[in-house]
Amino acid sequence: MFLRKIFSSLFFKIFFWFWLAIILSGITFYVLTTITQSSTLSKQMNRLSVTRRQVSGQSLVYFGEAAIRTYENHGPDALKKFAQNLKQKTGIHTFLFPGGFDAIEGQEATFQARVIADRCRRSRKPEFGAFKDTFLVAQPMVNELGRLYIVVGEIPDAPPESTEPFYRLPKDFGIRSLTTFIIGGIICSWLAWHLTSPIRKLRNATQRFADGDLTTRVRPELGNRRDEIGGLAREFDQMAEHIEALMTAQKRLIRDVSHELRSPLARLNVALELVRQKTGPEAETSLDRIKQEAERLNEMIGELLSLNALESADDPTKREMVNLDLLVREIVENADFEARSRNCRVRIVTMEVIKVFGVPQMLARAIENVIRNAVRYTAENTEVEIKLSCTHDGSKAMAVVSVWDHGPGVPDSELEKIFQPFYRVADARDRQSGGTGIGLAITERAVRLHSGEVKAANHPEGGLQVKIYLPIDPVS
After folding, report:
1. Range of the domain at 274
2. N or C: which end of the chain has fewer CB within 10 A?
């Protein structure tokens, strides 16, 4: 998963393709340069070969004339000594073939010397050849009496024709390629990092904004860029300012309306008690109804104020280590006592000892809202099942609080909407026990402030199951 994330990142794509382009360009340039240079060198070698043949032929003519005179005037032994002295001084080994057929007696002609001598005899012109690291020259010559002699010279060292062909890469090609790869990789990694840096900053700013920091802005981090990324940063800041203004106005409206409603609601309760004292028993039913609705309105106002407080609450200094198992047990005991009045129970199925880092009151409120909501909708003579366990989400350990009721459930299309303020499932709107529609919204906000997540799903056996995921502190 980690490698897949790296390979799919924009940084890796820019780095890889730039690096590959530099490598291929470098190799192509190097090979073309090598071919061009080698082609020029090959032409020079060919010219050198022609020149060497001419020089070798002329030298062999001089040596051949001396060898023929030595042979004709002093015999084979003298010729043998002449050939030995010539070899010691020049390194050239000469052979004399009278008539072009067999070498002089006493000279042990090599196979390649006999072959080139025979070829020269038939062509009657100078012949050149190579055998291993020896260059051979055969020169036809005629003495004063018109007799044919073939003089063969074996010149040591590799001839020009044995030079490495131009298409062979040099021995240090691997080191050169590796150096190109390393330098190209460093340049490309820096370039990719530079190009993706503003995108990473924009992504981090978007994440902070999504986490609730509405004051997040990108322009101060990117500077005065005038390219497309700078334009995107300006548009992001404009959007953030507009959303921040709307959210601030919404919070202020909820807070002001809630506070303003508290005063007339309190006066309404006082007036209600005065009316109750002045009226007879026949008005008790109507007065009780008015009191009940006033209490529901007061409860809703309290929930609104709590939600508004959570929207602006994120003080890490108030957090501490919380024994989540003890907190859940206490909430379950209170909820079970209230659930008995509806002929149902709240039961702990699994309870592990887990500690989390957070605000105890906020966590208690979040879990309590979910359990009370389950008690409100579970069928009579059923149980709300509570589980507290630990699971691992990748490399993080998570505490999971699971609440399962046996109620009517929620349509799948509305599972994510039940955590929105004032949202209630259509079937529950006519219920007297429908609640205020704010409790689960408070849960979602409180869990999110603890870097957690809350999810709802219909249980396969019926009812709704809500799970709260909270990160476990590493030191716990």
Report:
1. 228-311
2. N
Last residue of a domain, one of 293, 311, 329: 311
Alpha helix segments (H runs only) across 313-438: 324-339, 360-377
pLDDT in tens, 186-198: 877 887 787 778 8
Pair 237, 109 in one domain: no
- Identify whether the C-beta of residue 313 lies closer than 8 Å to the C-beta of residue 346: no
Is residue 331 located within the same domain as residue 463?
yes
Catalytic residue numbers, as ranges: 259
Structure tokens at 41: 């060198």
End-to-end CA distance of the chain: 27
Residue 400 resides in a domain = yes
Residue 207 lies in a domain: no
For residue 366, give every residue at least 6 positions away whose Cβ sits within 8 Å of its Cβ, in sequence order, or none.
442, 443, 446, 447, 454, 468
> Measured between alpha carbons, how far is 14 from 188 in angstroms, rounded to an integer?
8
Residues 222-256 pLDDT 10s: 767 777 777 788 888 888 888 888 877 766 766 66
Nearest to 30 by CA among 174, 165, 163: 174
Residues in the chain, pLDDT under 70: 1-11, 30, 32-58, 105-106, 157-171, 173, 223, 250-251, 253-263, 280, 282, 296, 299-317, 394, 424-437, 473-476
Across-strand partners of 93?
154
Phi–psi pair at 430, nearest 5 degrees: -85, -5
What's the angle, vertex CA 52, arms to CA 47 and CA 56, rounded to 5? 155
- In this structure, what is the dihedral angle of CA atoms 175, 181, 184, 188, given to the nearest 10 degrees? -160
